[in-house]
Amino acid sequence: MIWQEIINGISIGGVYALIAVGYSLVYSVLNFSNFAHGEVLMIGAYIGFYALTALRFPFWLAIALSIVLGGVVAITLEKIGYRPLRLRKAPTLYFMISAMGLSIFLQNFTLVTIGPNFRTYPEVFSFDPFEIGSLSIGSLDLIIFVTTAFCLGLLTWFIYKTKLGVAIQAAAYNMRVASLMGINPDLVVSIVFFMAGASAGIAGVMFGMKYTVYPWMGSLTIKAFIAAVVGGLGSLPGAVLGAFILGVTETFAAAFVSSAFRDLFSFALMIFIIILRPGGLMGVVVKEKA
Amino acid sequence: MSVYVQGILFLSCINLIAVLGLSLLTGFTGSFNFGQAGFLAIGAYAATLMTVKVHAPFAVALVTGMLASGLVSILLGYPTLRLKGDYFAIATLGFAEAVRLLIENLEKVTGGSRGIPSIPTKTSLGTLVPVTLAIVWVMRNYIASRHGRNCVAVREDETAAQAIAVNVFRYKQISFFVNGLLAGLSGGFMAHYVGFIQPSMFGIQKSTELIVMVIFGGMHSITGSVLSAVVLTSLPEVLRAAAAWRLVMYGAAVVFIMVVRPEGLLGSWELNIRSIKAMYRGASQFFRHLYLRAFHGTA
Amino acid sequence: MELLSIQNLSKNFGGVKAVDAFNCSLPKGKIQAVIGPNGAGKTTIFNLITGIYSPSQGAIRFDGHDITGQAPHLIARRGIARTFQNIRLFPDFSVLENIQTAGHLRADYGVLAGFVPTPRRIRQEREIRDHAQSLLELVGLEDRAGELARNLPYGHQRRLEIARALALDPQLLLLDEPAAGMNPDETQKMVEFIHQIKEQFALTILLIEHHMEVVMELSDFITVIDFGKIIAAGTPDQVQADPLVIEAYLGVGA
């Protein structure tokens, strides 16, 4: 049943990849880890859930809603919690603390208003699983994989093939110089956060569909961080690679050791990579200009 | 003193000890420790096992808790302290979760998720308060010393600190170790005050509360830590009805502080002879001004 | 004997050779300037000397010891102090505290004395404070001792950074663009100041600077760098006349 586990691993890896890419994107432009990223995922998951159940929207509309609102929420968080710090050139520590504050606020606000109950998405797709030999690939897994692959492709196209995407790359490299070249840093930051939020929103829906929705889903962001670190912080392809590696190895650890140790394993993997190869598998180790 | 006020005093001191360690590590040295609860847990469980299983004297149990937590911080420090800030924060978070998971799974030793009940309540105000005051005094001294300045240099600019011959790793290690000792002590005191321990007491909620205390009063001020430990420990008791909303408000408060006044309430201000004199001077000038105005119509 | 001796120093970043076979031989008490266009690798050389980067090739000897690739704080301890191109003061510290912090080498009381004061600590702290005070007077900042470093005007910040470097009692001082952003009047004062501290503290100085007047007035030797490589070296007169230098850096008709 190794292959079955691999398929599970790839499935969750795709979700991790979406989160990790958004996370890495923000990191590469603003040079800090957005600990509140996971909460956008959580909000996206809830939005999708309510869109499908309470509002009875068709699936495509629910997804579109969580994408757009995910992006909007992310931008709002940026304006409230990070922009003032950015303008003041605050040290990274302050960004991290502010992110922590946003995360705690959103998590607990959801907890208090909506309640701690786990929600399950209604079954949207009820196709039979695909059979390939002795393997069965659930239709849900397939949908998730296709969706994440599509989103990643879209993101890649945007970043590497469009003018705005190149502007973002320039800003990621050196924000100050980019602004001197006429690139509006606020705009770049907003776009980056929108993309990160949108991909987190969709990841939330995917995760909600496969598993459940609960207020502290946001802690998945840790997995995204680990994935980004394993692949190389600041490298988008690295984030994707790291996410799939994490997804697969973690699934194996859960299946063949114990599910309680799944998270422990992920941390151990991260520490292992950090010690052996701090730049990650594909990372660029950028030394600060002294 | 009413039982109610006593309770607040107990908890304030217990929290303050942990907050002082965190203040040194995160506030003064700039290493964001998101996993303080993990060290509390180690101290609490180590001390408890000493009193409950080995029937050791309380002082020995407390010291064991401190040393256990301190030792773990040294071991954890080697792979993590050289990392960038975010890596370190996540590593400490992972550490705290790992500790909690381990405690939950080593049922034979730790009682698993049900924890250890019926711990002898040996923490008394007679021991706790003097110890806490002594720690405040000791930490104040450290911050005022050349070592304290070196810690701040590490926080402000690691490259510049190295250029003035400060061994950045060593100072982070010392701060991490001291934090480990203090957190372990706090955990030991807490276990023997509350009377039982469970892994759920040492989750991310606890780590968050402690970080908020450090930020609220002033990341760069020991006096601020004392103030916020007392205020933020009393507040939940006062606002018991709104307990569920407490963390919501904490989160909002953290963001608010970072955006509006990241130095916290007191910034780097410390209560010491100099500042008391300054306050005295300011106050007497103010009253002199009032007196002249009132009785002579001039200022 | 040379105080600082650098042989065949090279540094690669990925595929880019930032420094290529740099050599230097600096006797005690002399001032050497390293000049070249922006991005030529000058600050990288400083970073290699002070241990922030490890060389890909080559060796650095200071005062008879091999310091190649040593940790920065140990190199600073040996007696090499520096300033930075983008001023790196401790922003949340006061002016006095910035210098006091660098004075920690004058004390040796341990961590335990940090927690519980001893007479030795009290005595040493007083010495550090007095020393820092005298350095403040040297740079004319004594009446701003209590101000936060980040509130100082630019020129004062530069002087403060130099004072902080001097607090290490260094033998070798690395100055990275000390006159950057200064008008001619301030620049002249900086030149005088550098002369003064060199004599007063018996310093050997390695200098990166773009202001040619500063370089010509101060230096005993000049090395010209472009794309990480030495393109000329010698006395100011020799370098000024070198056609390669004129072409690459000083501009036609300089």
Provide tags for this entry.
heterotrimer, A: mainly alpha, ABC transporter involved in vitamin B12 uptake, BtuC, two-stranded antiparallel sheet, C: 254 residues, alpha/beta, six-stranded mixed sheet, four-stranded antiparallel sheet, 10 helices, 10 strands, globular
Topology:
The complex is a heterotrimer of chains A (290), B (299) and C (254).
Chain A: H1 2-30, H2 37-53, H3 59-87, H4 92-113, E1 130-132, E2 135-137, H5 139-161, H6 163-173, H7 175-180, H8 185-210, H9 220-231, H10 236-256, H11 262-276
Helix pairs in contact in A: 1-5, 1-6, 1-8, 1-9, 1-10, 2-3, 2-4, 2-8, 3-4, 3-8, 5-6, 5-8, 6-8, 9-10, 9-11, 10-11
Chain B: H1 3-28, H2 36-53, H3 58-80, H4 85-105, H5 107-110, H6 125-144, H7 146-156, H8 158-163, H9 168-194, H10 204-217, H11 222-238, H12 243-260, H13 273-296
Helix pairs in contact in B: 1-6, 1-9, 1-10, 1-11, 2-3, 2-4, 2-9, 3-9, 6-7, 7-9, 10-11, 10-12
Chain C: E1 2-13, E2 16-27, E3 31-35, H1 42-49, E4 57-62, E5 65-66, H2 72-78, E6 80-82, H3 95-102, H4 111-115, H5 119-138, H6 154-166, E7 172-176, H7 184-201, E8 204-208, H8 212-218, E9 221-226, E10 229-234, H9 236-241, H10 243-250
Parallel strand pairs in C: 3-8, 3-9, 6-7, 7-8
Antiparallel strand pairs in C: 1-2, 1-4, 4-5, 9-10
Helix pairs in contact in C: 3-5, 3-6, 5-6
How would you describe the overall organization of this protein?
- The complex is a heterotrimer of chains A (290), B (299) and C (254).
- The longest helix of chain A has 29 residues, at 2-30.
- In chain A, 52% of the residues are buried.
- Chain A is an all-alpha fold.
- Chain A has helices at residues 2-30, 37-53, 59-87, 92-113, 139-161, 163-173, 175-180, 185-210, 220-231, 236-256, 262-276; strands spanning 130-132, 135-137.
- Chain A has a two-stranded antiparallel sheet with strand order 1-2.
- In chain A, strand 1 and strand 2 (135-137) form a beta hairpin.
- Chain A has one domain: Orthogonal Bundle (ABC transporter involved in vitamin B12 uptake, BtuC).
- In chain B, helix 1 (3-28) runs antiparallel to helix 9 (168-194), helix 3 (58-80) runs antiparallel to helix 9 (168-194) and helix 6 packs across helix 7.
- Chain B has helices at residues 3-28, 36-53, 58-80, 85-105, 107-110, 125-144, 146-156, 158-163, 168-194, 204-217, 222-238, 243-260, 273-296.
- Helices cover 39% and strands 24% of the residues of chain C.
- A six-stranded mixed sheet of chain C has the order 6-7-8-3-9-10, with helices on both faces.
- In chain C, helix 7 (184-201) links the parallel strand 7 and strand 8.
- In chain C, helix 3 packs across helix 5 and helix 5 packs across helix 6.
- The radius of gyration of chain C is 19 Å and the shape is globular.
- The model of chain C has no long low-confidence stretch (mean pLDDT 90).
- The interface between A and B is large, with 43 and 41 residues.
